[in-house]
Amino acid sequence: MEVTRSKVPASTEDLRIKQRQAQQLLRGELEGEDLDAYVEQRLLLTKFEDAQNWARKNAIWPLGFGLACCAIEMITTIGSPRNDLSRFGAEVIRFSPRQADMLILSGRVSIKMAPVIRRIYDQMLEPKWVISMGACASSAGMFNNYALVAGADKFLPVDVYVPGCPPRPEALIYGIMKLQEKIVNGPDQGWRERYDAGGTEEATDSLA
Fold first, then answer.
1. For the chain, which domains are there?
2. How much is the pLDDT for 196?
């Protein structure tokens, strides 16, 4: 009775070939065209700016900051297993503006709160971005009265607006994805460069 050999899957055979090539490389046995082909398969060329923007895109650190009911949706987006921001590199929440680079305005902004938010934004390091989440932060929403700021763009440069009252977690994730596209495709980082606002850094009492 003739026994037939089981066919080895192509993926397993490819793995054995790669292991054999790695062993030959370590022993110094790969030369000439084989060595060139081995290096070309594992070499990636790019520009420094592209690599830098790719790293920024996948390492967005949001500031743990909430204003009103939209903050509940933001917390659901960041912390729940169904809508996990770890897939987008934005799960590292920081409660200090010195360690964060994305400010999510989630809720209505009162006139008394606007200077505080601006101070927090000024303390964040460049490059930094702002997402206006919900109708209240974008246009005062249904609380459009004398006590609220009708739009966060009156005191902050907003990069992405997320509509809704409140927006679903999927909408905020979509807004973060749009922000990532801006980070990759926009070489000019930082609001001072975008708005030609050099010299507007926050001045402390000791420097004033």
1. 62-186 (3.40.50.12280)
2. 61
